Every structure is written in C-alpha cells, then in structure tokens.
Amino acid sequence: MAARMSRRGLLGLGAAGAAAVGAGVVAANTLFDEPPVAHAASTADPFPFYGEHQAGIVTPSQDRLHFVSFDVTTDKRAELAELLQEWTAAAARLTQGEQAGPFGAVGGAPEAAPDDTGEALGLPASGLTLTVGFGGSLFDDRFGLAGKRPPALADLPKFPGEQLIPEISGGDLCVQACAHDPQVAVHAIRNLARIGFGKVSVRWSQLGFGRTSSTSRAQATPRNLMGFKDGTANLKLEDTDLLREQLWAAREDGAAWMAGGSYLVTRKIRMTVETWDRTSLAEQEQIFGRNKGEGAPLHGKKEFDTLDFDAVGPDGKPAIAADAHVRLAHPSFHGNAHLLRRGYNFVDGSDGLGRLDAGLFFIAYQRDPRKQFVPVQLSLAKDDPLNEYIKHVSSGLFACPPGVRDAGDYWGRTLFE
C-alpha cells in the first residue's frame, strides 16, 4: 500500500515558518473539566480532531468558511451509517493536513480515480475544522430515526419579515468547513461530497470570508459588512460555566445521544448595503446602539464597557434606544439566553440590478434553540430598525452530535446505537 502523503510534509519547515502569522490561542476546558488541549500555534497548523466535542464550535474562529447542506439520496440506514464512518475517517486525515484517502491524489493505480482531488497538495492544514450536523428531515421514516429526534430540534417558527428560499434552506445533513485558507476549506467539502456520491447530493452551499464573531478572548472583535464590530458579547471558549449551561446538550435534555453536542442555526442574511451606505453615521449608530469606530456602547468609551440601558444622553433621552439592536438581542431581556456565534461575511456577486448580493451568513450554536435563538430572533424580527436594511433568505437547523473520541468512533455513532 502506498504511504500517505502529508500536505504539511510537502511544504517543509520553511513554508510552515513563513505561515506562522497567527498568535497562539488558548483552549477551553471540556464539559468534563479535562486539562486544556494545546491548539494551533499558527494559522498553518492543525487543530485536534478527536475530543469530547466536535471541533469548529468553540475552536477560535478561522477566517474562511465553506458550509454545505446535503440531502440523503439512499434510503438504506446501513449505507447512511457507513457514509458517516467514511466521512469521519476522511475528516480525521484532512484536518491534520493529509489527503482524504490512504492513496491520496497520485498514489493509487493509474486506471482508478484518485483517493483525493489534489487541489490542496502542497498546502498546510490551515487550521481546518469539519463539523457535522443532522437536520430535522433526517428523522423521518426512511432510517428508523423518528423516535430519536431531539425535542430541541423542533422546526423553527416563521419569523415576521423573513423571505426564505426553500432551495437554499434546510437539509438532511450539513458540514461546516472552517480554515484560514479558502482552498483548504473548499477542498475538504469537495472530497466529502465525492465520497458521498450515490448516497448524498448537495442541496445548497455557502462560501464565507472575514469571520464576523470571535470565539476566544485571544481574538479581536471583527466587523460585518455594515462596518460595525459584531459579536462583542459573544460566548467565548473561556466561559467554561456558561458553555456548560448554554452550549452543550446534556443527557437530561431528552436525547441522550446528543450529550456533548450542540444545536446549530444558520441564517443567510442579505444586506442592502447600497441603502445602508447612504444612511447617516448618527442613525447607523443609533440602530446598533454602539459607536462605529470603537464599538463602545453609546453611553461609554470602550468596546467592552458594560451596557447600561438606563443611561441617558445629553438630550435626556435614553443613550441606547429601546429598539436598538444591542438591547433587543441582549441576554437580560431573554432569560439570560446566550448564543455562540461564528458567522461570516459573504459576497455572491451582484443581483443583476447593479446591487451587491452581500451580507452575513449567520451561524450560532446553543443548547436549545427554542429557549435561545427563537426568542431573540422573534424580538429582532418584530422591532429591530435594522430590518429596513436586511432580509433573511435562508435558514437551517441542525443537531451537531458529540465529538469523535478516537479512531474507532465516528460522527453520529451515538445516534445509530
């Protein structure tokens, strides 16, 4: 059998050193308070694949995204479980900078299709993480899984003002690929789709760039395409107690197989950036409730100043308006509901009318969307003045199972037991 070819090995130390532009990051304690795991020291290096939880959730957010939703085309339960095992084996290789299959792109028989598509040869791991989720539609009568559908995977309600496009919403399975190199992320998704041929088909996919949230305090808060810092109050991997309470599913939640997993909500939010760009700075800041430069609350000076919703401005009116985005979304108005966001900007060309097809691909993880995402989004959908400039066109909800513990485990094993 031909030896595996490591992409990182092909680069050599010189290229790996040149890519070491990222600062070191810290790792979260697991749900079971295990010692922190050493994470990637540079943007070229890999993150661990095995663990209690899937990588790509509390992992410090990478710069690029390729998200894909699949429809399962086989009706055989055994084939679905087999696919998840094949995907897991490939993901374990890919995330460590190796090729998707044991023979790689050039190591197999010339008359056979390669084990890897080859476009990532010579590239490092680039912090690639792959995270899988199961949509509600997977729990129909095809695979005998209906009785295992988690209560927290209840269909999202219809929110006021949304204009969802069915063809780019939902799906049986999803895979989130995040990396610091877009070619590495695309390569990973391409190879999983190749492996799944005949068992799954791509329903929709989304490329993203410029992460719009920080998932670690070692990261600066990024900006969305409206120019504002996004996710200042986001859950962080250092918030161990909050993660246990707000992020990770537990056995007592009604689906024992999801213990250690999390629930993923995606929303493609198109922005009418041309209209926004003609809006005065004062109005933009009033809509968000923060200033555009520093990201500070309108009553404060620094980004992380505590929000004071009772503070008044020089005119005697509330410094942060009652319908400001930061107020409507704040945990204190929603039973202390927090979200761990790791969304991305997108620009998908133009709409044919001279306007950019651009916006935010919103990604949020939580323990129970019924108690977290749904009440927050209902409040925003009804009262947020930002709705004049945005439109929700895609939606997804997926149950992301616990992590893969070792080479004998696989994504979703607890579901099929």
Automatic annotation (TrEMBL):
Organism domain of life: Bacteria
Dyp-type peroxidase N-terminal domain: residues covered: 54-209
Keyword Heme: yes
Intracellular or extracellular location(s): Cell envelope
Record key words, sorted: Heme, Iron, Lyase, Metal-binding, Oxidoreductase, Peroxidase, Signal
Coiled-coil annotated residue ranges, if any: none
Enzyme class: oxidoreductase
Its EC number(s): 1.11.1.-
Catalytic activity reported: heme b + 2 H(+) = protoporphyrin IX + Fe(2+)
Cofactor: heme b
Domain Dyp-type peroxidase C-terminal: 221-404
Textual note on the cofactor: Binds 1 heme b (iron(II)-protoporphyrin IX) group non-covalently per subunit.
InterPro entries membership: Dimeric_a/b-barrel, Dyp_perox_C, Dyp_perox_N, Dyp_peroxidase, EfeB/EfeN, TAT_signal
NCBIfam families registered for this protein in UniProt: Dyp_perox_fam (TIGR01413), tat_substr_1 (TIGR01412)
UniProt function note: Involved in the recovery of exogenous heme iron. Extracts iron from heme while preserving the protoporphyrin ring intact.
Family label: Belongs to the DyP-type peroxidase family.
Protein name per the record: Deferrochelatase
